[in-house]
Amino acid sequence: MNSNLRIALDLAVAGVPVLPLRAGKVPFGNCPTCAKNACGGRPNMKTPGPCGCRRPCHGWAAATTDPRVLDSMPWARAWREAAGVAYHPGGAGLTVVDLDNRAAIAWARANLPTTRTVPTTRGEHWIYRGTMQSANAVRPDVDIKSLTAYARWLGPGEDAAAALPDTVRALVIKEPPKARMAPQTLSAPLNAQRGACPHRTPTYLERGVAMAEQRITEARSAVHATVYRTFLAVLSTHGRCGCLTDAHTVRLFNAAQGKGESPRHCADAWTNALTTLGLSHG
Predict the structure, then answer these.
(1) What is the value of pTM for the model shown?
(2) Angle 238-120-108 (CA atoms, 0-180°, nearest 5)?
(3) Quick one: CA torsion of 245, 251, 255, 258, rounded to 10 degrees?
(4) Any bridge partners for residue 87, and if so which?
(5) Which secondary-structure segment (H or E) carries 6?
């Protein structure tokens, strides 16, 4: 038994759906019967089934925890040729934040709760408990891998996996339509919101706001959506404990207006983010 199959079987026993990866970190292609989804199953790999092919077909949707399938003859050649093992995070109840370089890791350390980390070739995987929509390039050099996606297995990592935070979920939320009669300015100071403070040090809030300003300032396209997602991320992390002040929000508004956003759009985006997170003052 080769090492990749041994790792896959161990993961399957632990309830982690796995599949083989070929060179280039990509899944094996569909078999002749399933080529171009001729079998009618797993259209565009967005949903598993109804194809019953027992080969490693259909990318992430081939991932399985059945040791009989993994060690069966149809899979034997794939494991002999495999360059690595992949797993389906969503199928294991997990979300992977794929950080591709040092800058992305620095952003995560400033904005996300600590969790299980796994070193990669160029960066790190941050693994959280919980599932969500997968998406690529949610910010520079950051991908989200959970439902309908696969990730390379690079080891168990360090530390316990934390619960999936709203800050990560907010990265893939698109801006909703502008609210009618949105206020031109802040409706009320956020220090009226009181909850558990997540800030490890006073610097944590400052770094988070500074990173948010930078993200808006560096946006080269989709500025409207970037402003909304940034507001949502800041509020999901800092909007409930009362530490976020009007001075902080003015900085964020100024950054957005420096990219050409109007005061009205800033207020609309802020109001929509408050409503989405249940922080609206009514």
Answers:
(1) 0.67
(2) 10
(3) 130
(4) 18, 151
(5) helix 3-13
